[in-house]
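Most newcomers find our protein records easier to grasp once they have seen one. To make this concrete, we reproduce a full record directly below:

===
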Amino acid sequence: MKNNVQIKTYTPKYKESFKNLNIEWISNYFEVEPNDIKALDHAEEYIIEKGGEIFSAILNDEVLGVCALIKSNTKDYDYELAKMAVSPKAQGKGVGLLLAKEAIKWASEKGASKIYLESNTKLQPAIKLYEKLGFKEIKGISSSYNRVDIQMMLVLNS
């Protein structure tokens, strides 16, 4: 399956999928928060126009997964890997890994040295994926989300 999946950067055609997959995923495990709605309803303004990117994993014209890189306005990191969601039917099939690898490659090509993310320790498959990619747990950056109980950073070798 993952051999046929294409990772594409953002176009408005994928906007609804970005929002719907995230709402479905967040609702499944947590509560959708006001900051989620802001980012998902205004993806272009909140992510794209500020120098970030949204990636979609596509198979046969269907979006199976999404994730975003949000450009940081702090000195702590260059981008935040955020809003990763994979359709239940595609979970466990390597779609999240493909998305994350493409996002990391994209950030690296833009000269990024650090990528940050927030997650929750009850999402063990996600945490294992991030660790596999080289993310390490960090402390000390405040989060605007109630569900966050782990923060991780990937330092890129430039």
Q: What stands out?
A: The longest strand covers residues 62-71. The longest helix spans residues 15-29. Residues 6-112 form a domain with the Aminopeptidase fold (CATH 3.40.630.30).
